Structures are given as structure tokens and as C-alpha cells.
Amino acid sequence: MSEAERIQKVLAAAGVASRRAVEEMVAEGRITVNGRPARLGQRIDPEHDTVEVDGIPVGLRADLVYYLVNKPTGVVATASDPQGRPTVVAMVPDNPRVFPVGRLDADSEGLLLLTNDGELTHRLTHPSFGVDKEYLAHVQGRPSRGALRQLREGVNLEDGEARAVAVSRPEPSVIRLVVREGRNRLVRRMCEAVGHPVIRLVRTRIGPLVDRKLPPGQWRELTQGEVRELERSGTEPPTEFGDGSGTEPSTEFGDGSGGR
What we know:
Layout: E1 5-6, H1 7-13, H2 19-27, E2 31-33, E3 36-37, E4 43-44, E5 51-53, E6 56-57, E7 66-71, E8 99-100, E9 109-115, H3 118-125, E10 133-139, H4 145-153, E11 155-157, E12 160-162, E13 166-171, E14 174-179, H5 186-193, E15 198-206, E16 219-221, H6 224-232
Parallel strand pairs: 9-15
Antiparallel strand pairs: 1-4, 2-3, 2-5, 5-6, 7-9, 7-16, 8-9, 10-14, 10-15, 11-12, 13-14
């Protein structure tokens, strides 16, 4: 059974802010405990109390873990696979049990988050929060400005219209795009709909989370700061890439970096 501790100590240890800053946030009414305004010096139980900062739940339980994986192709983003393929869950420690946050196809690669934090999983996957997922798609042919405009304005798919919130062409046959949905094989289907089937697809960003140094097939734990940033994600304005004219710096895409 966990012990109740002063709220400023708990939130400072969780990386929310310094103790003094937490005290100021409490005084400003920005922190609630179980739906009620927090009090200065209030004691809370991290295992059972629900704490929100500016309306955003903060994970405080000691057993919460957050793993960032650079998923290679051929690995499925599930806890188990009836076909016997390797799973992303098998890449990280067995205990505590974690689950992938969202989708990433077996033939796609790049960043994937695994956690046992249900609140954060909901924030990152529910369409109402609109959290960015950024991809690099190496495609057949050379997309025109018109094709990029189609992706921004919306393309019709069998399960409804889909659009990217930002699109650019950093290289002649590479499309960088951001989506805020998690439909099955969405980016691949969008690119095919504008006449440019995907050859290789890499997820390079989840909300504010980027790691260009994490090798394919490897994982690491998130820092407290990264967890706090993810908890606040979904409140930012849309990402902008410019006009998609292909004038951006060259993208390191063909070296097998898997989004490093």
C-alpha cells in the first residue's frame, strides 16, 4: 500500500515542475485532485488519486512504464500473432505488461510507443485529441504539387475521406506527411489514392516525440520530461511544412536508418 505524500513532492518527482512551481500552480487553481481544486500542502496517494494539471491527467503510479521502440519491418505491433511473426511487445521487458499505442503495419517501420498507461494511450489514439503522427513515405514516381495538394485537401477512401494536416516533398520521390487519425494502413492508402504507391514507410514522430539516434530494433525508456510532453500533446496548432515545393533540406531516407 502506498503512502500519501505532499502534492508538491509527488508532482516534482514526476517531473511536472519544481516544488515551488507546483505550489504556485496549486495557488492558481491549475491542479485538481479527484476533480476538486488541490490545496497547498495537500497529501495525495499516487496509486489511487487522480491528479490533473490544466485539465490533463498526470500519470503518477509507480508501476507505469513508457518504452519507445524503433520498429523494424516484419515485426507486428501487437502483443501476440497467430501467424507466429515477431511482435513488438517481445522487444521490451516482460514485466509489467505493456501494449502498443496505436497502429504501425508489419511492413512499416519507425517509432512506436508501448506503455501500461491507459490515460496516455487514450490521449494519443483518440481522434478528438488530434495528436500528430509524422511519416516519411518513399513512393513510386515523383509526386506533383497537385498530388500534395490532394493529400492536404482530402482523398476519398473506402472508409471515408482522409486528409493530411501537413504535407511536403523533401526529395523527388519522398513525401513527408502528418496525419491525426489511426485508421488501418491510412498513409499507404492515401498515397495510392493520388497515384503514388508506397515503397517504404517510416514513422518519424509521435506528437512531440522524436529520436533520430535510436537504432532499428532497439528500444529505450522515455524520460519524465518526454512523458509530460506527451500528456500535453494534442493541444498544439497544425504542423506546417511550407508549400511542398521540394526546396527543403535533403532527407536521410535511403540509408536504412529507420527514422533515426
